[in-house]
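Work package 3, deliverable 3.1, input record:
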Amino acid sequence: MTTTTATRASTADVALPALFASILGLGLIVLAGHVQADALHDAAHDVRHATGFPCH
Amino acid sequence: MLGRILTSAVIAGFAAGLVAALLQLVFVQPVLLHAELYEGGELIHFGADSIVSAQQRTGGVDLLRDGLSVLFSALVYVGYGLILTAAMAMASARGLARVDPRAGIVWGIAGWVTVQFAPAIGLPPELPGVAAADLAARQAWWAGTVVSTGLACALLALGRSWMAWGAAIVLFLLPHLIGAPQPEIYTGPTPPELAGEFAARALGVGLAVWVCLGALAGALWSREMRDAGIAQPA
């Protein structure tokens, strides 16, 4: 039998890393899904349509 | 903690992105290429000379175009994976929800409702060449709908009172009561049958991919927490 010393992560431990990860994720989605720069739009075109992002 | 979130999210998102690319290239891309034949004028839907076969053989592999689709698909789902894993980490740390692969599927479905299904109620996934309102207005409505629906899902799933659930219902409905920006007139060369098929396939593929993303993120995050000796809510 193992003794469990597991403790729950506190909100304070998680809040900042979670915020950072969310902002990074949001940046990727805006870049891949929404920014209308021509090169980016053309490259991401089919994925934007197929994923339901407003395009054109 | 950041390293654990990033590792889980990037692996889950990248894998889901590959699944998305594969499903999209097989099921969605042929419809899009078919529509482009109408957009470019090779096929004509209405008019005196519209006797062309509705069944066109489209598909095949365009290495550059499809390669870019794989890349951007991975980017999009890594992005979603980061947000999903961050939300799982927060909910788990606050004792609101247990995270495991099975719960992850429900998280994934909620993610799909948030970023694909709810926006599609006002702005169905569009084929190239269909009529649409001003892009900036549609993007603003899309973003507002995602925020509102995401909050609604969180309140519905994690709330513990009728007040929270009531607010969830209001937030679910609000974007659709406001209404998505619609074009002044419907015009464009593309058959509505193709547009319907495209929207249904895009949503179906999206659901399958989000279920994968949620299950993978749930599996990887619960493993990270076990390895770190962090307890989960029962």
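Chain B touches chain A through 61 residues (CB under 8 Å).
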